[in-house]
Structure formats: C-alpha cells, structure tokens
Write a structure and sequence with these properties.
Deoxyribonuclease I, Chain A; 27% strand; globular
C-alpha cells in the first residue's frame, strides 16, 4: 500500500499546475494533502472526485488558511476531524481515517515563526498530539503524516547554525520530536536513508530550491508495531508545484 503526503500551499493554485493529472498518474492508494487553503464547497467536482479516489476535507474557521485533505481509493471505516480540542481543531489541521488495521493521521502542524504566541501554540499542539496519538495507538497501529514544521537534526537542514534560533529548528522543537519518537514511533525516511541534502521544503522568496538550501520538515511516522510491514519511504524533490515536495511511504498492508 502506497501513501503520499504533500503540503501543496493552496489546492486551487496547484490545480492549475497539473495536480489532478499528477494524482491519477501517481496512482497511490492514499494521498494526504496539507495547506489546502479552501473549503470543500469552494472546490469544483474536478478536485473533489479525482480518478478513483474518495475525498475528505477538514477546513478552518478562517478562510484561505490551513486545511487538510485525504484522497483514498479504499473507503475508510470512518474519517474524523480534529483531536477533540476546540483550540486546535478550529484551525482545520487534522484528519484521521480509520482502516481495518491502522489509523492514518494527516496533520498540518502549526508554524511558530510569526510570534511568541504562535510558538507557544505550536508547542501546546505538539503536546496534545503526542498524548492523542499514543491513546489511538492503544487500539491499533498508527501512521502519521504531514508538515511537522520542524527539522529534526542537523542533517535535516542545509544551514543548521544559521537557523538554530529560528522556529522550525529550535532546541525545544527538536527535543519534542525526540520525545515523540521515544514513545514508540519511527521516522520512516531515516529507516532507509541517512544521507544529508534531502529536503522537503525550500524558501521560494530566495529561490532556495535551485541551490537546494532546504529543510526536511515533512514526515511519515509509524508506530513501532507496524515496522515489520514497512517497505520503503522517500522524498520526491523532482516534483514541482509547491514550496514543498511530496514524500511517500510503502507499507505491506
């Protein structure tokens, strides 16, 4: 079973760049999208009913902001929005699809760069998610994907020293990923590839992608009990259309 996760930075914008055609050609069983920046009712049928996919959306109170979507060929048992906390759920950042043998959590984690308040919000979101994910794991295996908005280690960022005091690479953000993994989750990409210079986000204003001055901030995590079913994970830097690129996961499910 193949999964893809991609922060598209506006689903209507990327539609004009061939997104529906890419989805059909990609042909993954599940495609998770972050930062849709659209309500479901704002989208035409050619984005709601792509190929053989069922589509599910979570949208925020604020228009043109945040939002996540799941496109899936297999209709899930259920799809739920949010993590049961109105403070976080109002921003439309979480979709949870239940399948027979696992939960899939598609999450657009907050960015903390705007202000101290937003960094505090991001860290609170992290803590709530950590507890919530482990509660779900008590029932069945969990797959987590999305834009986590933090590069974990120095190998995950092109310029670690220059960014050590910037949200997205702060010690407390990186330490939180350490703690999350210590509860029994795996960073699937690093199970297969330990090399540097593999990034999933680049600053478009400085044309950083042309120089590969990037950050690896998009992840597929799986709970440890699913590790025997893990077959592959990758970053697809060659795919254009957003300031992020897609990442993928292969599972024997």
């Amino acid at each position: 079973m193949r999964f893809v996760s991609w922060n598209v930075n506006g689903i209507r914008a990327i539609q004009k760049k061939g997104f529906p055609e890419w989805m059909v050609k990609n042909d993954s069983e599940v495609i998770c999208i972050q930062e849709t920046k659209a309500y479901r009712e704002q989208l035409k049928e050619d984005l709601l009913g792509i190929g053989d996919y069922h589509s599910y959306f979570s949208t925020p109170e604020r228009k043109g902001y945040s939002g996540v979507a799941i496109y899936t060929k297999e209709d899930p048992i259920s799809v739920e929005e949010g993590m049961g906390a109105e403070r976080f759920d109002r921003e439309g950042r979480v979709l949870i699809a239940e399948y027979p043998s696992f939960f899939l959590m598609n999450i657009y984690f907050p960015n903390g760069k705007a202000s101290k308040d937003r960094l505090s919000y991001k860290m609170d979101f992290y803590e709530h998610f950590l507890r919530f994910a482990n509660e779900m794991r008590a029932e069945k295996g969990v797959i987590v994907c999305g834009d986590v908005n933090t590069a974990h280690k120095e190998v995950d960022i092109a310029r670690p020293k220059e960014n050590s005091k910037i949200s997205g690479f702060l010690p407390e953000e990186r330490e939180w990923i350490d703690r999350f993994l210590a509860t029994g989750f795996l960073d699937t990409f690093r199970e297969f590839d330990q090399s540097p210079d593999r990034y999933s986000w680049w600053d478009m204003k400085t044309r950083a992608r042309e120089r590969n001055v990037g950050w690896r901030i998009d992840y597929f995590f799986i709970s440890e009990e699913l590790k025997p079913l893990l077959k592959g994970a990758d970053i697809h830097e060659e795919i254009q259309g957003s300031d992020h690129c897609p990442i993928s996961l292969e599972m024997d499910l």
